[in-house]
Amino acid sequence: QMWDKGLVYQGYKVTPHCPRCGTSLSSHEVALGYEDNVEDPSVYIKFKIVLSSLVDSEVREQLNNLFASSDKPAYFLAWTTTPWTLPANTALAVDAEAEYAVVETDKEFLILASALLYAVGLGETKVVKKLSGKELVDLRYEPLINPHEFGIERQRFVTVRDEATGAEYIELQRQEPDKNLTYRVIATDFVSLEDGTGVVHEAPAYGEVDYEAGRKLGVDFVHTVDLQGNVIGTYPFAGKFVKDADPLVLEELERRGLLYRSEKIRHTYPFCWRCEAPLLYYAKQTWYIRTTAVKEYLISGNNEINWYPEHIKYGRFGDWLENNVDWAFSRERYWGTPLPIWRCESCDYLECVGSLADLKKKPEFSGFKEPLDLHRPFVDEMTFACPRCSGGKMKRVLEVIDCWFDSGAMPVAQVHYPFENDTLLEDGRFPADYICEAVDQTRGWFYSLHAISTLLFSRPCFLNVICLGHILDAKGEKMSKAKGNVIEPSTVIDKYGADALRWYFFTSSPPGNVRRFSADMVAEVPRRFFLTLWNVYSFFVNYANIDKFTPVAEGVLSHSELDRWIISELNQLIADVDAALESYDPTGAGRKIESFVDDLSNWYVRRSRRRFWKSENDADKLSAYTTLYQCLVTLSKLLAPFTP
Ligand SMILES: [Zn+2]
Ligand SMILES: [Zn+2]
Q1: CB 43 within 8 A of CB 262
Q2: Helix (H, G, I), strand (E, B) or coil at 467
Q3: What distance in angstroms lies between residue 137's CA and the mean position of ligand 2's atoms?
C-alpha cells in the first residue's frame, strides 16, 4: 500500500561501511573497532575563490577591490585527514557567527577563522581584513578537480513539490557536465573553531553531517569511490584503494598548486571488528519510506494519544515528529523480512509485490519451491518477466527490512491482516487501548507503531501509553555491563520474591520517573507492607479456625463503629484505586492500598483484638470476623493486578 501511494523510494544514507566485508556496521559494531594512535595525513588545502561572486555587500566589494588590486590569487584554506574525499568536495562550510581573517602572504591571500590563525602557523602573517562568517556564505570557489573531466557523474539535492498532495521532498537530480563548474560556501552549526581552519571541507558522499547539511542546503553530490573503497572514474589515481590513493591525490593537488601544507597526524580511527579494514563513512543507496509526506497526520494523530507522563507527548515524542525525516528502512542483512521489491536486470524497472498470490500470477514466474519459505535465500530464487521491456528478468533486490518495521507492523501483522481478520479496524481490536515501554522507544517502537499506522490508516494504533523512566544504579549512574553495575532482576527476585520487586517499582515513584535502584531498597517492601498484611491475615486465620468461622454474605450491617469505619475506608479505597488505575496511575493506587493496610493493622485489628479473643460467639464477634474477612478478600482482589 505504501508503494502504491508513492511513499517508498531509493535514496542515500551515510553509514560506517567496511570496504572489505561490503556491509554497513551498526554503532555498537563500530565501537568495537576503534584504534588509537593511527597515523593519517593532515593536510591544508587551498580552494580558489571566484572573484566575480564577491558582490552584494560592502564588505565583499571591499574584498573584491583588495584582491583585484593585486596579482595574487585568493583562496579559502581548509583542513582534512582524508585526502581521498577531496575529489568529492562539493561545498565549504563556515560558522556564520565566527570572525574570519584574510591574511596576505608573499604569494597569495588566504581566508580562515581568526581564532585558528596561530594554530595553523599564520599568527604572524599580515591580516589585511577581518570579516564575519556571514559575509562568506554563498561565495563561490572553483572545484579542486572538476568531476566531469574524470568521468564522474554529478548530482544535486533538489526540493521537489508533489502537485497532487502539496508535500515537498528532497531528491537527488543528475546535473549536466559543466566545464565552468563552481561550488559555494554554506553556513552550518558544526564548524569547529578548535581544530582545522574554521573552513570545513564538505564531501556529502563521505560524511554523515556533510550529507545532512548538503541535503538541506541543496548542494552537489558526487561519488568518486566504489563500495570496495576503490577510486572510480579516470583520475590518475583511479582503481586505487582510498588509503593508497591519499598520497596520489595530494600529488595531484600539489601539481595544481592547491596543497598548502601536508603533515601527519596520530588520532583515533574506526576499523572493522571482523577484518580490521579501515571503515569508510559512505553514502549508500538505501530504501526510504517518505514519512515526511504524512507528517501532518503523524502530529494530529499524536494529539489523540494519552501519554503518561504527559510531557512526553509534546516533548520528546512531539519533537521527534516535528523534526520528522524519512525512514531509512532497508538493511544489508541476510536474516530479516525480505524487502518485496523486484528489479528488472535489463531496464531497472521496479515493482513491489503485495502478496504471494500476486507473485505467483506474474508472467513467467519461476523459482518457487515447496515447502513455502519467503525468506532468503529461497525468495531470491523467485523471478518473473519484466512487464516493461522484452526479455528482462525481474529479480528481488537484496535488502531486507529494518526489524523496527516488523515491530511497528505488529498490530496488523500479528493477525495476518488484511489477508485474514479483515474486520480488524471495525471489530474493536484496533486501535489498542494501552501499550507500555521505556522512554528510549520514542524513536523506536512507539514511533514505528505510530508511523506505520499513520501511513496505512491515517490514525494512531494505540490510545494510551505509559512511558517508563530508566532504572539507574544506587548512585544514579546508568547500568552498563562495562561498568559492572548491572543488577540482575533474578537475584533480587530470589532473595525477596517477585511480588516485592513489583510492589517496589509500582509504589516507590511514578513509572515515568528515572529512578535509582539497589536491592536494599526492595528489602524494605516485605517489612513495611507484606509482613503487615501477612500478620493481619494470620491473626484472622488463627482465630477464625479456632471459632470455625464460616463467611456469610458481605454487607451485613454492623453496629460497631470500628467495623463501619473500616468498611467505609475500604469502599473509599476501592473507588480510589479504580480511579487511579483508570487514569494510568499505578503508583497512586498502590500507595492508597499501603496506607489502608497500615490502618487495617494498626487501628482496626489493634482496637478490635478483644472482640476476637473473647470466649462467647456473639453477634459482635461475628461482625468483627465478617468485617475483617471482607477487608482481606477485597484487598486480594485490589492487589491482584499488582502482585498476582
Ligand atoms: Zn570488514
Ligand atoms: Zn525490464
Answers
A1: yes
A2: strand
A3: 45
**214 in a structural domain:** yes
- Among the listed residues 91, 40, 46, 93, the one whose alpha carbon sits nearest the alpha carbon of residue 242: 40
How large is the ipTM? 0.84
Does residue 267 share a domain with residue 413?
A: no
Residue type, 534: W
Helix (H) or strand (E) run with residue 585 in it: none
- Give 274 Cα–ligand 1 centroid separation in angstroms: 5
Evaluate whether 196 touches 92 at the Cβ level (below 8 Å): no
Strand blocks (E) in 379-538: 384-385, 393-396, 400-401, 432-438, 462-468, 471-472, 515-516
In CATH, what number is assigned to the domain containing residue 580? 1.10.730.10
> 272 CA distance to ligand 1 centroid (A)?
5
Nearest ligand to the C-alpha atom of residue 351: 2
- Nearest ligand atom owner, CA of 29: 1
pLDDT digits 0-9 by tens, 7-29: 999 989 999 999 998 888 887 78
Give the pLDDT of residue 554.
59
Cα 449 to chain centroid, rounded:
14
Contact between residue 534 and residue 639 where contact means Cβ atoms under 8 Å apart:
no
Q: In whole angstroms, what is the distance from residue 451 CA to residue 473 CA? A: 34
User: Would you say residue 15 lies in a domain?
Assistant: no
Give me ligand 2 centre to Cα 350, in Å. Answer: 9
Ligand 2 geometric centre to CA of 103 (Å):
58
**Per-residue model confidence (pLDDT) at position 164:** 73
Q: Are residues 598 and 623 in the same domain?
A: yes
C-alpha cell at 421: 481478520
Do 315 and 373 belong to one domain?
Answer: no
Q: Which amino acid is at 381?
A: E
Q: How many CB atoms lie within 10 A of CB 600?
A: 22
In a domain, 12, yes or no: no
Picking from 370, 398, 426, the residue at the C-terminal end of a domain is 398
Average pLDDT, the chain: 94
Same domain, 394 and 408: no
Domain boundary among 398, 424, 441: 398
> Do 493 and 539 fall within a single domain?
no
Q: Which residue has the cell 473507588?
A: 575
Residue 1 forms part of a structural domain = no
The three grid cell numbers given for residue 296, joined into one nine-digit string? 501532518
Q: Could you tell me if 322 and 421 lie in one domain?
A: yes
The per-residue pLDDT for range 486-525, each reduced to its tens digit, is: 999 999 999 999 999 999 999 999 999 999 999 988 998 8
Our count of domains for the chain comes to: 5
Residue numbers of the domain that contains 45: 20-284
